[in-house]
Amino acid sequence: RTSSSSCQCSLRNFASMAVASSFLLIISVGTTFVIISGGIDLSVGSMLALGAVLTAYSAQWGSAPAILVPLAVCTAIGLTQGLLIGKGRMPPFIVTLAGLLFARGLAFKVSDNGNITHLIPEGEWVIKLGQSTFLGVGLPAWIALGVLLLGMVVLYRTRLGHSTYAIGGSEEAAVLMGVRVVRVKLLLYTLMGFLGGLAGLLVAARSSSGLSTIGAGFELEA
């Protein structure tokens, strides 16, 4: 009995750790692509916070807006950063530092400088994305695993992945090879924004609320 109880406890601990790590894993996949390309994205923690706040805020109009709004807004911010870095040829450090401040500031604006914690109304099915389980493990962990596997396929088996490595090795050589550097950078930073919004969405669904202070330091951990 003691052995069985210990085993069950270990499995529960593993399941809890898997869910707790899933949000960081999701943004780490996007960060991996960006760093391999020779760039950096400092905005990922703020993107997560913004995604969480927008999810909880938009849930007052239903589950569909609670999903679409954070993904759309964070993806748009990522796209803007990609345009400034790719077409504008601005340093990624400066651009994404500005993105960090903008996303965090927008999150504070929506939450009235952190004085309001928006809650997802009970009964909204978006909550199931964060609180449902499959085979005893929370759904966010399975989503993070799916993102990881898909990221590995894209990185090692697609033209985008090969182009990412080429740009990171030598951008000048990649241009001579015919790699569309601007397009690749645009895709990578747009993807990073989407994954930041997705992670924030799952955090909010997990806790049924959106806090503007979460995600601090995630840019370094990722």
Report on the structure:
The chain has 222 residues and is mainly alpha-helical. The chain is 74% helix and 4% strand. It contains ten helices and four strands; from the N terminus they run H-H-H-H-E-H-E-E-H-H-H-H-E-H. The chain has helices spanning 2-36, 44-58, 63-86, 92-110, 128-131, 139-157, 159-169, 171-176, 181-207, 218-221; strands spanning 118-119, 133-134, 137-138, 209-210. Helix 1 runs parallel beside helix 6 (139-157). It starts with a helix and ends with a helix. The model has no long low-confidence stretch (mean pLDDT 93).
Number of strands: 4
In which order are the strands of the major sheet placed?
A: 1-4
Structural class by helix and strand composition? mainly alpha
Strand content: under 5%
Query: Which percent bin holds the helix content?
Result: over 70%
Q: Please give the radius of gyration in angstroms.
A: 18 Å
- Written as H for each helix and E for each strand, in order along the chain, the element string is HHHHEHEEHHHHEH
Q: Helix count, per DSSP?
A: 10
N→C terminal distance: 40 Å
Regarding quaternary structure, what we see is: single chain
Mind describing the biggest β-sheet? 2 strands, antiparallel
List low-confidence stretches: none
Shape by Cα distribution: globular
Q: What number is the mean pLDDT?
A: 93
